[in-house]
Amino acid sequence: MSWVRFTKTGVAVVATSAAAIFALDMTNERRFQRQMKDHFRIAHADRLAELNKRAPSALPTRKDILTSLSKGEEFDVLIIGGGATGAGVALDAQTRGLKTALVELDDFSSGTSSRSTKLIHGGVRYLQAAIMKLDLEQYRMVKEALFERHNLLEIAPHLSSPLPIMLPIYKLWQVPYYWSGIKAKSQALERFPMLKNESLKGALIYYDGQHNDARMNLAIILTAIRHGAKCANHVRVEKLNKDENGKVIGAHVKDMVTGGEWDIKAKAVINATGPFTDSIRLMGDPETARPICAPSSGVHITLPGYYSPSNTGLLDPDTSDGRVIFFLPWERMTIAGTTDAPSDVTLSPQPTDHDIEFILQEIRGYLSKDVSVRRGDVMSAWSGLRPLVRDPNKKDTKSLARNHIIEVGKSGLVTIAGGKWTTYRHMAEETVDTVVKVHDLKTESGCVTPGLLLEGAHDWNSLQYIHLVQDYGMEVDVAQHLSNTYGDRAFVVARMCKMTGKRWPIVGQRLHPEFPYLDAEVRYAVREYACTAVDVIARRMRLAFLNTYAAHEVLPDVVRVMGEELGWSYAEQRQQLDKARAFIDLEMGQNAKQTAVSNAPLNLTKEEMQKAKERFNQLDKDRKGHITVNDLRKHFREHNQKIDERVLHELLNEVDLNKNGEIEIAEFFQLYSGLKGGQLTSNRLVGYLDEIHGTPSVNRACGGI
């Protein structure tokens, strides 16, 4: 018999008859955390106090950083990869006094680090294995995760917060197993009213941490830059440079924005490229490096906020195929995931409709029958590649490492691979320890990152948004968004906002009426090293992850503002638009949604098909058998509707399933069938036509328009 009680700090009490050694008192665990925190701060108290002073000056420009990287000076450390791990290594190395450089092929956090479940795990899922299997390694992983979670919540409180997560219990035999943490059925439904109540016995509540992963990654990078590190995105490593003994002494790189190329000299090179680990390892040691990365694809979906309470998540620990699925409030929406399947390494992982349907089906099993879980409610979907690794030092090459591994190649290349978001700081610490030892580097101190505040945390408090409302005349939700995104730097963004010309709000032009993102944030994003429209909509803001339709709609304004800031030509602006639209369609699930509509069986009655055909003919007056942009333009003009030319093309594109530039009658039928069946919950063209012509042509699923 075993039971567990969970508190806001993690696991409070664990009792088991399996073995006395695992009769763990987590009060001592919390005491251990405090002792460790105090140890780090006492050991480097003066240095940490100095490092934690808020930098008043502006960030260096990307051009300034590239100039520093290309001057020919030798760095102590060159890091390849700007995800969570690479960013953590850069911050750790720089704050120890090492001269640090970092290059990232795409954008900071463009890969796995921005596509996570948004949780800072406290290691609870490892606890059962630690107890029941007497696994000391798993227990150590729990201790490590609890400490790292606590530290991350402390050093970036504006980007992270505790989140209660509910584990519903539907079987009587589970009740004694979870007895000390059990909540009554009525309490469970009060906290999570969307939950299925049939056969519900109770629920377990435990606390984890939640964060804005891409912004957290960027905060680590910006903090490293503030302390002197030279970190550049959109810079590709073409090859690793070596001396006459075959030792790596730097890299030849290319700026993907300007096309410029140069060498970066470094005493040590660190490979922190996640799923692309093996490609850099092969550059360093082509004759001896065996592949160690076994990437796994995890798909998440975004649903409207009403699918979950704003302050409680849900955990399904036992899905139909044995995987774990989380169902969480995030950024006023709801995210669900993840799947887990082997995948090829790719720069552009894409969610499949099969994975999306799997997640939806699992959700249906936990939510009340009064909540209709519709395919059309999926606002966005994305796939992230988790870089699982095999330990190259073990003979059994089939088994995957539970945690991270650090490898030193014959060339001197140091590789850090595996791990998870929660432990990025600990991984970075061990990596820098290894590099310092192997390459005999001289540091000013040991690791000082426990307690080291990240960008925006220094003067932030939870009521800061009120000052933005009162001092600048911002809407409350906009002020909260700025405060929780930029921390104490939110005032810099506020000062960049233009007057609205309205009584209220006084400042703050929204990019989209449904979301709190402002046009001033686009200008600020350029100062945070955004180089492409995708950098802005996916990572500086999170709109592409929240709603693909809204992301498409704001793109022209995003590109226009970036064009003003970066001096883009008309041709470059068009290219940025095309690339960003392709990103949304392929990587954010828009194409998967259209696939779902295309593949759904036609479910219209004869009467509904006739009404849909009549609506089609109102647009296709020449009886060509298809509808063009010219047909839409002419129809709206005839009915005194002023529709922007850009919107006309968007309306056609949303219905044009085969992408031939026309809407055919079969696609029109499929559109109305999708609305009826729930594969779609709304469509702008249908909405406009209903406004002009009145009665809808089909019965919509659950009243959705």
TrEMBL record:
It catalyses: a quinone + sn-glycerol 3-phosphate = dihydroxyacetone phosphate + a quinol. Its main location: mitochondrion. InterPro entries: DAO_C, DAO_C_sf, EF-hand-dom_pair, EF_Hand_1_Ca_BS, EF_hand_dom, FAD-dep_OxRdtase, FAD/NAD-bd_sf, G3P_DH_FAD-dep. Pathway: Polyol metabolism; glycerol degradation. GO terms for molecular function: calcium ion binding; glycerol-3-phosphate dehydrogenase (quinone) activity. PROSITE patterns: EF_HAND_1, EF_HAND_2, FAD_G3PDH_1, FAD_G3PDH_2. PANTHER family: GLYCEROL-3-PHOSPHATE DEHYDROGENASE, GLYCEROL-3-PHOSPHATE DEHYDROGENASE, MITOCHONDRIAL. Its EC number is 1.1.5.3. It is an enzyme of class 1 (oxidoreductase). The lineage of its organism: Eukaryota, Metazoa, Ecdysozoa, Nematoda, Chromadorea. Its cofactor is FAD. This is Glycerol-3-phosphate dehydrogenase. Keywords: Calcium, FAD, Flavoprotein, Metal-binding, Mitochondrion, Oxidoreductase, Repeat, Transit peptide. Transmembrane segments: none annotated. Belongs to the FAD-dependent glycerol-3-phosphate dehydrogenase family. Residues 607-642, 643-678 form the EF-hand domain. GO terms for biological process: glycerol-3-phosphate metabolic process. It is found in: Mitochondrion. GO terms for cellular component: mitochondrion. Gene3D superfamilies: Alpha-glycerophosphate oxidase, cap domain, D-Amino Acid Oxidase, subunit A, domain 2, EF-hand, FAD/NAD(P)-binding domain. It holds the Pfam family DAO.
